[in-house]
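Dear support,

I submitted the protein below through the web form. The confirmation email said the job was done, but the results page showed an empty box. After a refresh the structure appeared. I'm attaching both so you can tell me whether what I see now is the final result or a partial one.
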Amino acid sequence: MATATAPRADARWSAALEEHQVALAAYLDAGQTVSDAAWTQPWAPGKWSPAQITEHLAMVYRVFITEMTEGVGMRMKLTPFRRGVLRTLMLPHMLFHRTFPKAAPAPREVRPVAENLPSRTAALADLRALGERFEHELSVARASGRPGLTHPFFGVIDWNRGVRLAAVHLEHHTRQIASLARR
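What the results page shows now:
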């Protein structure tokens, strides 16, 4: 029986990684289409600029890489019961519908500042490298038998759903910056 489940688990893992790779590539492509003038302007009133969004995504990768390599992740925001409820009810909804709740707050650890952000070229290159390292560290951590990634609102989520959530997060922000390319 173990031999039958291992190929399915490997196939699901490969599909989740591919989903992330496609989402990262789409974000990087969308980032290239944003004009230099629009790069530092909010994508909508009261929202982050593409530069800030890209920094936010880089910060998320750095936090998760640190968790996987050093064991220190983001601080939990809710009680274990509330995290369990969100993990059971909201996370599957987000993964199925490929959306994030409107006005969902970013944890403090991954909120970008407005000053001293890198150029578009440097930011996108950094994000690409971090995304690739994130995938590598995921594979290493998954193979080590650890249970999954720690999310501040969901608690520990298994590797497949963790990488899929990262893909949905990228898609969420891709839609935001892609709206600037049409202007």
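Response: this is the final, complete result; the empty box was a page-load delay. The domain at 14-181 is CATH 1.20.120.450 (Four Helix Bundle (Hemerythrin (Met), subunit A)).
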